[in-house]
Design brief:
The chain is an all-alpha fold and 101 residues long. It contains 4 helices and no strands. The chain is globular, with a radius of gyration of 16 Å. The protein starts with a helix and ends in a 37-residue tail after the last helix.
């Protein structure tokens, strides 16, 4: 996801999380192997629609369309974690990254 697509103030959060994650674990070559295993887009990169429950219901129209309905804000749950699908249906079941143990 591009920073410009997310925008401020939320845009800095995924970048910060990625930096912390990359600085924290033992060092490994997972970035190299993950990149090598990912399929390369041919031509224009394909875009996938985000799930309705992940979209911001910032207007009455958005709310009437079900945007944001049933979204679980992880920080209001124990352990700041919820089991929830974030991937588009077209990407479910694909695995590109394998964490080093």
């Amino acid at each position: 996801m591009r920073f410009g697509f997310v925008g401020m103030p939320e845009g800095h959060l995924p970048l910060t999380q990625a930096a912390i994650y990359l600085a924290s674990p033992r060092k490994a070559n997972t970035a190299v192997t993950t990149y090598a295993d990912c399929p390369r887009p041919r031509g224009r990169a394909r875009r996938f629609a985000s799930a309705l429950h992940l979209r911001n219901p910032s207007s009455a129209l958005g709310r009437s369309m079900g945007l944001g309905k049933d979204y679980k804000y992880p920080h209001t749950y124990d352990g700041h974690f919820v089991v929830e699908d974030y991937l588009p249906d077209e990407l479910k079941g694909r695995h590109y990254y394998q964490a080093v143990k």
